[in-house]
Design brief:
Layout lengths: L12 H11 L14 E5 L16 H16 L11 E5 L6 H12 L10 H18 L3 E2 L1 H8 L4 H4 L11 H18 L15 H6 L4 H4 L19
Parallel strand pairs: 1-2, 2-3
Helix pairs in contact: 1-2, 2-4
Amino acid sequence: MDVINRGFGGYNTDLIIPVFEQCFAAQNEEPNAPKVRILVIWFGANDAALPHTPQHVPLERYKANLTTLVQAVRSPASPRYSPETCVILMTPPPVQHERWAHGYAAMKGVAVRAPDWDFDMAKMYAEGVVEVGEKEGVPVVDVWTKMWEAAGKDMDKVGEFLFDGLHLNAKGYELVYHALIETIAEKKPEYHYDYLQTVFMDFNDLYADFANHRKLSQKRSAYAKGSLPDSKAGL
């Protein structure tokens, strides 16, 4: 499977909906487009900015926007209905709002101002994602809780996962990666890398039987590697 990462700096869920409608093909527009097997939706850090900022999206509208994105793929009435796509939501992480405010001021060479983010606000928006996931029946990677618990529920230690109090550093992204892989293994094990193979054979296998390399070079299923554990079959 190909992994496509689409990040939009500064965007919130208000801004991303019209972009999503252009990125995720409608059935009648691109009938031969590759199938999206897993769609991970990760928004909320910007939506959870405090109300005095332009990025802020009120909590109820944020949840409605997430629902719109999920239903755009999962609702049979949607032109972008894709029943083979597994949607996974991810919550925003915790923030160190004071650290961000001081770091931003130092970066811009201006006086420290009131923070644009708040720890408790980020938690509320993370809880909103969990609520939408439960309502829509889609898996949720609770980044906020996993990071908070990994930090021992210590605000200072949250900084071990954040570059500047707001954005994740390498350790933070590593935590997110493992949390996402765990969710895939639990909810959609057939898409876990342990059960996938390359669509085209490894070159060593081709050289081992070079006389038949044309035949062996034919595209094959990505899902034929190994077999799923009995406990995971059918999920």
